[in-house]
Amino acid sequence: MRLFLREQRPVIVIYFIQLAVVTFVYWLDGYRNAAVSMYAVLLSSCLLAGYLVFRYLTHRSFYRRLQEPAESIGDFTDVKPSSPLSESLHRLLKSQYRHYISELSGQTEKIEGHIRFINQWVHQMKTPISVIHLMVQQESDSRSVAIADELDRLRKGLDMVLYTARLDQFEHDIYVETLGLEKLVRSLITAQKRLFIRGKVFPVIEMEPQLSVVSDEKWLTFVLTQLITNAVRYTLRENGKLYFRAYAKNGRTMLEIEDEGIGIPESDLPRVFDAYFTGENGRRFQESTGMGMYLAKEICWKLGHELDIESEEGRGTLVRMKF
Predict the structure, then answer these.
(1) Where, by residue number, does the polypeptide cross the bilayer (predicted)?
(2) N or C: which end of the chain has fewer CB within 10 A?
(3) Domain spans of the chain?
(4) What is the pLDDT of residues 67-115, one digit of tens each?
């Protein structure tokens, strides 16, 4: 109704101005019967009111659709045009909607093609990495060890690219099952033994063996790998420890990973999970990309887990995952 009145306001104003002018002309011509003039004004006003009521009733759905916010891009299609103006606007919106859908489909196809290319490229790169790793794993000289370390970094970088590309299509690549938490952590520690040796960090497992969680093993393994990599990377002192704790609390399973590293400055803590945020520590360690913790948070959210972080600069960092 408000939109209708705002649109018809000029018509109403012009009508009363015209009525006043006509009445004034008749008054100048000598017709000064006030009762007849008022009767004419009343009849004319009734005609105007009838026109406005008819106009509102026939355009009510159109005005309501303009006034209410759209819930989706195709929400206008349920409006039935009731006048030439609304019909023309409806045709225009449908035409723009078709162009929008066409462009959106084209862009979506390009993005999906790009993701397919990234996935294929990552898998192709993993093959020579595995071959080189087999060539140097039996060697114990410092050069071969350095090559193996760089291969580990390269493999983790490729995994990050792959999981980042798949994140938007997460629901197409998920398999939920019951996982033994201690077994999963021990297998991760074994897979990352070169990282622990290079960083001179010792893992300490304090977990109840019967604890299990419901999750996707592949995505959860990627998240835990990111957390372990960060913990070891920022533990500078030799013979530092990385604690893995798991326990049940209030009907939920908690997994804590606590390091004895340099910690996170208090000013950086609220932005740790932001994409591309490296913070003060990231500027000191050039390997930081600012994507590891962001991906961990996003994957945990999609899996239905919670990820919290506590840290004190100079004392270490504790990351808690709630299942």
Answers:
(1) 12-28, 34-57
(2) N
(3) 2-97, 174-322
(4) 666 666 666 555 666 666 667 777 787 888 888 888 888 888 888 888 8
Tokens in use for 218? 């592949």
| CB neighbourhood size of 212 (10 A) | 17
Instruction: Give the mean pLDDT of the chain.
Output: 83
CB 34 within 8 A of CB 86: no
pLDDT in tens, 12-43: 888 888 878 877 777 777 777 777 777 777 88
311, 281 Cβ separation under 8 angstroms: no
Q: Are strands 201-207 and 240-249 parallel, antiparallel or unpaired?
A: parallel
| Residues 6 or more apart whose Cβ sits within 8 Å of residue 4 | 55, 56, 59, 63
Characterize 44-80 residue by residue with b for buried, 16 or more Cβ atoms within 10 angstroms of its Cβ, and e for exposed: beeebeeebeebeeebeebbebeeeeeeeeeebeebe
Tallying the residues shown for the chain, one arrives at 323
Q: Which CATH number fits domain 174-322: 1.10.10.10, 3.60.15.10, 3.30.200.20, 3.30.565.10?
A: 3.30.565.10
Residue 243: what pLDDT? Answer: 94
Burial class (CB in 10 A: 0-12, 13-18, 19+), 232: buried
Residue 320 has pLDDT above 90, yes or no: yes
- For residues 54 and 3, what is the distance between their CA atoms, to the nearest angstrom? 16
Q: Which residues pair with 316 in a beta bridge?
A: 312
